[in-house]
Amino acid sequence: MSSEVKITVVIPTYNRADFLSKTIESVLNQTTKPDEVIVVDDGSTDNTKQILKNYDIKYIYQANQGVSVARNTGIQYATNDWICFLDSDDIWEQSKLTKQIDFHKNNSDILISYTDELWIYNNKIIKQTSKQQKEANPTFLNSIDLCKIGASTVMVHKTIFDNIGLFDSKLTACEDYDMWLRILRKYKIGYLDEKLVQKIAGHHGQLSFETIGIDYYRIKALQKHINSQYKNQVQHQINLKKKILLKGAIKHNNQFFIDFCQQ
User: Fold this and answer.
1) Could you report the per-residue pLDDT of 61-110, keeping only the tens digit for each?
2) Are residues 90 and 158 in the same domain?
3) Same domain, 198 and 222
């Protein structure tokens, strides 16, 4: 990696005006400054645009199409080879970019990395369960159970998207889980065992908390790999997640999910 590595930060946002300033300031106050910050406003109806006038960033407004399309827009407009994602309610530690750049300089064969993160729910630190602990050496198989890679922690070279494709706009949720699985089929993902991101939760508008039938989207992501070398393990995971989804669907009388599980 060149010592003059240039980074674009992509921040998708939708009605997060109350959080956006802290998020952007955590980027602009990095010990290593990014070369470009792109905020993709996915059809916000609050005062997001007015808040962003105070910052030296690239602002892109689009009709509401979901976080996948917003991230894809950011990728397509990025003028640099390396991209970091940041959700508009999360916060970077000040040395995040510096440490991740140093990691890639020392591991030039690795084109994507992620870090540990601190979980904060309603202003309280939440301890991750053993099942949620990050993988020091993430692989496809140890990542199919659930998503352990936080989008806000990722630094990735654009060539990966040229080979893998962009985020799946058909997935309302679990689009990051889907992306990391697709990448892990072909690439090694590096890990920095430091909590360099604060993942903020407990407020309105979070997909992982508010999306109904979240396992439906995990199953849709897994189905892409049913004909891979991991067919048996993938089918096992699909069966497990279908049982969970069906149980919830019956409880809430959701006929769409019931029919899906019984196909």
Assistant:
1) 999 999 999 999 999 999 999 999 999 999 999 999 999 999 999 999 99
2) yes
3) no
Distance between alpha carbon 113 and the CA centroid of its chain, in Å?
A: 12
Judge if 14 and 90 occupy the same domain: yes
The domain tally of the chain equals: 2
| Residue 184 pLDDT | 98
Question: Per-residue DSSP letters for 45-76?
Answer: -SSHHHHHTTSSSEEEEE----HHHHHHHHHH
- One domain, residues 160 and 112: yes
pLDDT at 204: 54
Q: Identify the domain containing residue 187 by its residue range.
A: 7-204
- Are 122 and 177 in contact by the 8 Å Cβ rule? The answer is no
pLDDT score for 129:
84
**104-140 burial, b for 16+ CB within 10 Å, e for fewer?**
beeeeebbbbbbbbbbbeeeeeeeeeeeeebeeebeb
Give the predicted TM-score (pTM) of the model. Answer: 0.93
Cα(213)–Cα(62) distance, integer angstroms? 27
Residue 1 lies in a domain: no
pLDDT in tens, 239-260: 999 999 999 999 999 999 999 9
- Give the separation between CA 247 and CA 98, rounded to whole angstroms: 46
Q: Which helix (H) or strand (E) holds 7?
A: strand 7-13
Q: The CATH number of the domain where 198 resides is what?
A: 3.90.550.10
Question: Is a pLDDT exceeding 80 seen at residue 202?
Answer: no
Tell which phi-psi region holds residue 66, choosing left (phi > 0), alpha (psi between -120 and 50) or beta. left
Q: Are residues 162 and 246 in the same domain?
A: no
